[in-house]
Design brief:
The chain has 227 residues and is an alpha+beta fold. It has four helices and nine strands.
Length: 227
C-alpha cells in the first residue's frame, strides 16, 4: 500500500469522513509520523528477521560494487543493518569466482595475514565498511562484489512511498491505536489488539517458510530409522 492508501484507510476509520486532508494538513503530517512508527515497530518486532528486509548488494541503490586492484575497503549500502554469510566476487558472466568468508572484527587478530577473509566495521547509524584480506589482485579487478544483507525498512516521506510491511492494515491499525491513545479515546485497546493480531499473523507466516520448503526441519527424534 502507498502512504496515500494507508492514510485514506486510517482517516476513514478514524473520522468516518469521505474527504481526506491533503499533505499540508496537520492530520496528514501526524499520520505519516504514526505510520513510520508502525513500520519501525514491525521491523524490530521480537527480533524477527522479516523476509522482506533481506537484500543483495547487486540490487542496492548505493555502495561499492566493483573490486579494484589494491583496494581493501569498500563502502556498503546506506540502508544496510546487518550482514552475514559470504562475500562473493562475480565475473562478467555473473558466476562466482571467489567466496570470501566473513569473520567478526574482534576475530581478525586470530586470522592469518595470508588467508582470505573479510569483515565489516561501522554500524547502521554511521554506515558500514567492507574490509577484505588479502589485497585484491589484478585477476579479480573489476569483479562484481555481492553479498546478502539485512536492510533498514523503508519509511514514508511522500504519498507514493510504500513500505516492506506485507499487511498494510497493520500500519492502519497501529496508527489508529496511537491516535486514540493521544486523544484518550476508549477505542485505543481495540485498535491496539487489531494491530497486534495483524503483526502476529505476519510473524507466523514469515517464520513458517513456504508450503514446499518450511524453514524448520521436523523433529523426528521419536521415530524409528527405516520404519
Amino acid at each position: 500500500m502507498t502512504f496515500k492508501e494507508v492514510f485514506t484507510a486510517y482517516y476513514t476509520a478514524y473520522r468516518a469522513e469521505s474527504e481526506v486532508p491533503d499533505s499540508t494538513d496537520d492530520e496528514y503530517i501526524t499520520g505519516m509520523r504514526f505510520a513510520n512508527e508502525a513500520v519501525n515497530y514491525w521491523s524490530n518486532y521480537e527480533n524477527t528477521y522479516w523476509k522482506e528486509l533481506f537484500k543483495t548488494l547487486v540490487g542496492a541503490d548505493d555502495g561499492d560494487k566493483l573490486i579494484v586492484t589494491g583496494k581493501t575497503t569498500y563502502e556498503c549500502p546506506s540502508d544496510m543493518r546487518e550482514v552475514g554469510g559470504f562475500v562473493k566476487i562475480l565475473n562478467s558472466d555473473a558466476v562466482a569466482v571467489r567466496n570470501i568468508p566473513i569473520v567478526e572484527p574482534q576475530d581478525v587478530q586470530f586470522m592469518s595475514a595470508s588467508s582470505q577473509f573479510c569483515y565489516f566495521t561501522g554500524d547502521p547509524t554511521t554506515g558500514f565498511i567492507l574490509n577484505i584480506n588479502l589485497v585484491p589482485g589484478t585477476s579479480i579487478n573489476g569483479g562484481q562484489i555481492n553479498y546478502v544483507y539485512y536492510k533498514k525498512p523503508n519509511l514514508f516521506t511522500t504519498d507514493t512511498d510504500t513500505s516492506e510491511v506485507p499487511n498494510g492494515y497493520f500500519i492502519v491499525n497501529r496508527m489508529l491505536a496511537n491516535r486514540f491513545r493521544v486523544s484518550r479515546n476508549p477505542y485505543y485497546n481495540s485498535a491496539l489488539r487489531d494491530a497486534e493480531n495483524d503483526i502476529r499473523t505476519m510473524q507466523a507466516d514469515n517464520n513458517s517458510g513456504s508450503w514446499a520448503n518450511p524453514w524448520k526441519v521436523s523433529d523426528r527424534s521419536g521415530t524409528i530409522w527405516g520404519a
